[in-house]
Amino acid sequence: MSIEVNGVSYETDENGYLVNLEDWNEDVAVKLAEGEDIRMEEPHWDLIKFLRNYYEEYQIAPAVKVLTKAIAAEKGMDKKEASEFLYGMFPKGPALQACKIAGLPKPTGCV
Amino acid sequence: MSSPARNWKTIESGPHTYEEALHPVVKKNYGKFKYHEIPKPGVLRHVAESGDTIWTVRAGTPRQDTVDMVRVLCDIADKYADGYLRFTVRNNVEFLTPNQDNVEPMIAELESLGFPVGGTGMCVSSVAHTQGWLHCDIPATDASGVVKSMMDSVYKEFKDMQMPNKVRLSTSCCAINCGGQADIAIVVKHTRPPRINHDHLSTICELPKAVARCPVAAIRPTVVNGKRSLMVDEAKCICCGACFGACPAMEINHPEHSKFAVWVGGKNSNARTKPSTMSIVAHNLPNNPPRWPEVTEVIGKILTAYKAGGRPWERVGEWINRIGWKRFFEETGLTFDDNMIDSYRHARTTFNQSAHVRF
Amino acid sequence: MVGATDASSQEVHHCGGCHAEGNGNGKFLNPTPMLDELESGPWPSFISGFKGLAERTKKPMLRGVMDQLEYSYNTKMGYWKGGLVTVDGYGAGIITRYSMIKDKFPEAAEFHTMRIQPAPGLHYNTAMLRELCDIWEKYGSGIITLHGQTGDIMLQGIEQNKVQQCFDELNRKGWDLGGAGAGMRTAVSCIGPGRCENACYDNLKLHLKTLKHFVGVLHRPEWNYKLKFKFSGCPNDCTNAIMRSDLAVIGTWRDAIQVDRDEVNAWVEKKGMDALVNQVINLCPTKAISLKDGEMHIETRDCVRCMHCLNVMPKALSPGKERGISLLMGGKNTLKVGVNMGSLVIPFMKMEDDEDIEAFIEQIEEIIDWWEDAGLDHERIGETIERVGLKQFLDGVGLEADINMVSRPRDNPYFKAPY
User: Fold this and answer.
1) Average pLDDT, chain C
2) 10 Å Cβ neighbour count for B220?
3) How far apart, in Å, are the Cα atoms of B141 and each of B29, B255, C147?
4) Could C89 and A87 be called an inter-chain contact, meaning their C-beta atoms sit closer than 8 Å?
5) d(CA B160, nearest CA chain A) in Å
């Protein structure tokens, strides 16, 4: 599978995750978001940038609790509100949608 | 990706409600049962304080069921049990009826349909097991096939109640052992370290997570052909396969090097002795589909020895505690070897810290 | 026990519905000689079931999956890889499976599982079960596992583009997805007060209320790792809570075992004095039972509520009247620090009315809050307690230390106390 952005073709896996993480740029992100029926707005970009910075620093995607904590701290929300806010932006969950749009590897495993 | 427009708003209801799933006689006597008897294998008779009696007929199922099979079970429930049925944690199906006259015809019909009636009292009950090749993403074998083969060989022991106490079995298709602790458990044991796909590792795995997953700190970062990757200290590696779950580029499974081990003595009930975990008593058995005869043979040896030597109410682990491990290996014909000496954390708690010796 | 080799040649039965039509002789399925070996023998065969279903429904996915499974039986390797599929608003509950060899078996390209939470105690009426089957056959493969090891109904085999509609239709009928990932998981209860005379609390009700309370984090996991509840009605622990759950809720009682003298005498009359001595008195783990003037006497202060004598004499002996629960924490299997048995953290808690349930849920929230802060990524709560210390855990969640929490006091002097 692949997606096409500005005339360039980028390879994706069957879930639509970028195969080569270095292919990511903001236009690619917008295209990946379209595939998820998500319109990228400022809070989306904030979270995507948080994910990418975190990945750059630690080479892992942050645990969801790290995301909700960061959102809660920034917006003055409690954990539940932060979780609702997160799923409001990414209805199918941060693991599936936010990581995909941020160009991070697909989370693995069920155990 | 996008689904058709939805016209339903999700209700996050959690578990399905149970009250409508209880037989009216159960509902009437809910929490007020007085005692039970097992008049014959596969049949329970519960008596409530009110004097009401409810009969249960229990039968084995394949666990990997189909809508067709479930509908057949529903037909039985409608015909004999007023439309109610339930399942046990060992995948047996139960039909409850206040009408004693329904018991024998129900047994006859279940048996004629191929569902063995039994699984009660001092029997070998059905197997708690995992998914395997049918569905799991990290399996070394097919638990359902092993279980089918094994249950064929203990069919009689499922249907009667001739064991010293109940025997619970489990089967797991990797060393993580999702099948769980049991009197006798069959668990895959990998015998060599993971093979690493350096081309793909950095794109499909989060490296620090795979490093952190290793129980013996045998994984470290490296660079191969200019790509970030991981390497395994093979001398340290204990072949547990934990990294494979975190990183599919660290393949642990192998047709020849993923073997079977057999474990005994797990017990979760508090009855008599405290709950206990299992010990390994056989390993290096081949992964031999479609019927895994070597595994079934070991199970047969253990069950035969236990059936002959166990005293009433002794579970497998309690029987071994009484007769000692030395006699266990003698009577089952299995062989103790130095790999069975614990070398992991808390190993010394399994050493014999006494002068108690059996000759 | 019959030998391994002759087991498969025993009389063959086919379970009802295992061979709805054709039984593999039809033209729809490709040959599967290895799998067919699992159709012989007396135990009901899952392969016969799959084949019958495939021949009746002619679903290509079933043919593809049978082909891939046959291939696995030949190569001794698995060919599924994970992925991520969910429904709107949920971050978990669908176990995604793509074939790694879909070029070889295109019909097996997708084979996702929907985890569905059954009613506590695995009770069903046929109407709800038939409804579930009808919806599942409409959207999915028709293969159902009853039940998965965590306690879910596993609807196995659906394509991604049908998941949302299938879920919506199931959800309309009162079914909801089970857990997956680093959050609350589906729970398990034994039959409890729904038939068992030993049920020391209403585990079905506690299970339902507790899981409803935590339903948000079951669907949107955001903890360190998974967290599992199991609810057993008595210390026989038929759900294997102590080994299989982070939070093992096990029924118990505080007062004396209830004794029906006449029934004790009737039992001895029938089974004999030898049985009373050998099977009851001698097997009591704390020697709490003795003979006094020929009559069985139980010293309640010595009794640890192990259940043995009650199991042997169900008509004569019953749990006491002052009933409740014990909470054990930390049960888990091998991955990755080794097997961990749950250990006692609350020796007794009353569990009779809604107030007790509320107090229980509050205590659990306190415990989870502590774990969220103190735990590491991919660390089960028992592992956190082991790493940090039971004393520190008790301090963190506001529980008083109790001698019942340990098998004995420490055997080393390596601690600091504020004298």
Assistant:
1) 94
2) 12
3) 45, 9, 19
4) yes
5) 36
